[in-house]
Specification:
Helix content of chain B: over 70%
Structural class of chain B: mainly alpha
Radius of gyration of chain A: 18 Å
Order of helices and strands of chain B: HHHHHHHHHH
CATH topology of chain B: MetI-like fold
Largest sheet of chain A: 6 strands, mixed
CATH architecture of chain B: Orthogonal Bundle
Oligomer: heterodimer
Strand content of chain A: 25-35%
Shape of chain B: elongated
CATH class of chain B: Mainly Alpha
Number of helices of chain A: 9
Shape of chain A: globular
Helix content of chain A: 25-40%
Order of helices and strands of chain A: EEEHEEHEHHHEHEHEEHH
Number of domains of chain B: 1
Distance between the termini of chain A: 49 Å
Structural class of chain A: alpha/beta
Distance between the termini of chain B: 51 Å
Largest sheet of chain B: none
Largest interface: A-B, 27 and 22 residues
């Protein structure tokens, strides 16, 4: 059984009399333990797509199942509990400036009503896993972007999720830090068996870690392939354009 | 130009009255105005607990109170004052309208401070499974703490100004002393001393508030 199933998912935004279609009839499956990439240009609907999975965005049409559960059928309360099993990491980190590294990682457990002891037992090994044990008492303003993204990954993992959604997690980082964070995501996938959906506009990120990739073009999935097949025989204009960027035909 | 000796006890007494009025009314405002500010923020359009009818009514009440000149508000709500403290004259009676004026003032400042918390942070909290109440207590209030301290400081300073009008209902205080002795009895020295004390008080409050806000900010 796939971990994530999207069936005919569409999303239309209405503002006054104008409507814009962010997603159109998206159908795809992500297997358990897979690292699944979604690549596309800005405005292709990547962020909307990933937010349909944890229902931060309510699809206009179609259905979304995560681990066999139809999120649309849940009450608000059940939905909040289910969201704890879907971690999410962001381009702009979204760490609380008022909390230390440790307290930021602890936040999802505090929200879930865990005891101090349970929090300590969960947060300490995770800080070790992402290599931030020494920075546990620092505030987000006192750490680098790469370190901040490690905190965000630890925070997303602290509730032991089965799915990790990554929304452009490496887009604000330099190439070396990007490589380190991607390696950490790979490691996370191996160590915790967590299914990862990785939204990106960087073909390098996809090639480094993804098992399969969906190419999104104006809200539609135009191609789903392995990174190797995508490189060898890109079917869509977007995929071809992305490879043009990574291997320029004109040398400087 | 000197301050007559018999004025010093009067000055000390008036200073005490001003402190009493301002400290009590700002405390009341903090207890009521901060929650009101949170409600105004979360029930607004696009807020985490959008409740437009409530938001419009609360907003209109806040605006109505804020647009009434304080000297008129003080007299206009005398029946309410009597209901609360069983008198309509004196320092204690002045505390009621001072609180009524300070609550919406602080609430709007707190609301503005909470709006500065990035929407993406709220989205992240929702993705963690936070409820609207949890978002208010775990995200909005802690992240806006420096802004809230600054808001309380501004309310404190503006209440010192409002308290100068308390003389109109026998509330006493430094402002009343300055009017009655400095102006009506031609004692410019009393006026000067009063103004100097008020300036010093505002400086001290503002400095302490700024220092606390800075300590709470980890940005």
């Amino acid at each position: 059984m796939p971990m994530i199933e999207l069936l005919g998912v569409g999303k239309t935004y209405t503002q006054g009399s104008t409507t814009s279609m962010a997603l159109h009839d998206v159908t795809l499956e992500v297997g358990a333990g897979e690292i699944f990439g979604v690549i596309g240009r800005s405005g292709a609907g990547k962020s909307t797509l990933v937010r349909c999975i944890n229902r931060l965005v309510t699809p206009t049409t179609g259905s979304v199942r995560v681990d066999g559960i139809d999120l649309a059928a849940l009450s608000e309360h059940e939905l909040r509990r289910e969201r704890r099993r879907i971690g999410m990491i962001f381009q702009q980190f979204n760490l609380l400036s008022s909390r230390t590294v440790y307290a930021n990682v602890a936040l999802p457990l505090e929200l879930a009503g865990a005891t101090r002891r349970e929090i300590e037992d969960a947060v300490t090994p995770l800080l070790e896993f992402v290599g931030l044990t020494d920075l546990r008492d620092r505030y987000p303003a006192q750490i680098s972007g790469g370190q901040a993204q490690r905190v965000v990954i630890a925070r997303a993992l602290v509730t032991r999720p089965k799915v990790l959604l990554s929304d452009e997690a490496t887009s604000a980082l330099d190439p070396q830090t990007t490589a380190a964070i991607l390696a950490l995501l790979r490691e996370t996938n191996r160590a915790f068996g967590v299914t990862i959906v990785l939204i990106t506009h960087e073909m390098r990120a996809v090639q480094a870690v993804c098992d399969r990739v969906a190419v999104l073009e104006a809200g539609r999935v135009v191609e789903i392939a392995t990174p190797i097949d995508l490189a060898r025989a890109p079917q869509s204009a977007t995929a071809r354009a992305f490879f043009g960027e990574t291997a320029p035909l004109v040398l400087p | 130009m000197t301050v007559p000796d018999n004025m010093w006890p009067l000055l000390a007494g008036a200073f005490g009255e001003t402190l009493q009025m301002v400290i009590v009314s700002v405390s009341v405002a903090a207890l009521a105005g901060i929650p009101l500010g949170v409600l105004l923020c979360v029930t607004a359009r696009g807020g985490v607990a959008e409740q437009l009818p409530f938001n419009r009514i609360a907003g209109a009440l806040v605006n109505a109170t804020r647009s009434t000149p304080f000297i008129i508000l003080m007299v206009a709500i005398i029946p309410f004052t009597r209901l609360i403290v069983h008198t309509s004259i004196g320092t204690v009676a002045a505390i009621v309208p001072l609180s009524v004026a300070a609550i919406p003032f602080l609430a709007r400042l707190v609301e503005a401070g909470l709006r500065e918390v990035p929407g993406s942070l709220i989205e992240a909290a929702r993705a963690m499974g936070a409820s609207p109440v949890q978002i208010a207590f775990y995200v909005l209030l802690p992240e806006a703490r420096p802004a809230i301290v600054a808001a309380v400081t501004v309310t404190f300073v503006s209440s010192i100004g409002y308290s100068a009008m308390a003389g109109a209902i026998g509330g006493g205080g430094l402002g009343d002393l300055a009017i009655r002795y400095g102006y009506e009895r031609f004692e410019p020295a009393v006026m000067l001393v009063t103004v100097a004390v008020l300036i010093a008080l505002v400086q001290i409050v503002q400095t302490l508030g700024d220092r606390l806000a800075r300590r709470l900010s980890h940005r």
